[in-house]
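Researcher: Good morning. I'm working through a list of sequences from a screen, and I'd like to move beyond sequence-only analysis. For each chain I'm collecting a predicted structure so we can compare shapes side by side. This is the next one on the list. No need for commentary yet; just the structure.
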Amino acid sequence: EPRYLILMLPQISIIAAIGLEKTFNFIKTKNKPTAIAVLLLILIFSIFIQIKTADSLIKSKLSPEFNEFKNAAFYVKDHSDKIDTVIINSMQMELAYYSERRIIGFVAIEENLIKTINEQKPKYLMLNALYPSEQWMYDFPSKHPDLLELEQAYFKDESKSQPIAAIFKVNN
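Model: Good morning. Structure tokens for this chain:
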């Protein structure tokens, strides 16, 4: 997970710099132009790898499935007020970013989810299928039709057989 490497970035940079300096100094004693060329090649190669990695990461986030999830988040944004709350089973940060609403994650136990719904009074409950969750989370809406009403669904395919996200309006 690249986001966890941010905390180690200063240490990694220092170790890499020391390694580059020692390599440069070792080669410089024999031939200074060669040492400069080796140093530049290492830096250019590192830059190239970073650009390729960033490009593949960005392209992975542009998948049709993720675009459908974004559409679901925009639906929430367009059909709710800034003070409204949404409960989701996964991808809380992505939903918070695109919907600009307060997001709460599912709790570990079904009974506690009902308690959270009663206390927090969310406008929507959203189920996301991009990242697997426990089965009870997907079964929750059918067990509580008096509490939740399907308002919008987003699918991976044209035949609408593979859901990506389902937005349920909470009847408070």
